[in-house]
Amino acid sequence: MKKFILMLSLFLVFVLSCGKGKEFVVKPLNGAQDLAGAALPDFELKDLNGKKIKSTKIFKNGKKTLFIVAAEWCPHCREEIPEVQRFYDKNKDKVNVVIVFTNSRSSLGKAQAYIKENGYTVPAYYDEDGEILRGFDVQGFPFNLKINGDKVEEELELPVDEDSLTKTFMN
């Protein structure tokens, strides 16, 4: 009986350790300083209601993507997100917009409250375990990328506003 319990325990440990997917890493090309040209692996995003979506469903739908990692407490993000919302309202049929809120010094509840209190409708996600932060090696907020299919086209210079986003994505 002890052998059976030991074997069952080892099996459960093995199954549970295999259940967590391998974390992804987006690497700069040939020692570049930014991620321009870097290939994007598949990963999952979780919206503010807990629904999961595969990155490929967003990135590979024929539209370019504005991908932002932000924090509701970040002053620069608070300036930028209203501009992103205006850009999204005008261009949502032509450009994907994704804002991923960090878990760094924050919580899902704070991100949900920030979106709701400001009436934002831009697609928002939450990085509950920091996988997005680590995968993209985010060093500061906001972190903005222009993505085309499965590649990073460019890291966007800060700050972005509706006009600069329109020039970047609509030309």
Automatic annotation (TrEMBL):
GO terms for molecular function: oxidoreductase activity. Residues 34-161 form the Thioredoxin domain. InterPro entries: Redoxin, Thioredoxin-like_sf, Thioredoxin_domain, Thioredoxin_ResA/DsbE_sf. Gene3D superfamilies: Glutaredoxin. It holds the Pfam family Redoxin. This is TlpA family protein disulfide reductase. It comes from Leptotrichia rugosa. The lineage of its organism: Bacteria, Fusobacteriati, Fusobacteriota, Fusobacteriia, Fusobacteriales.
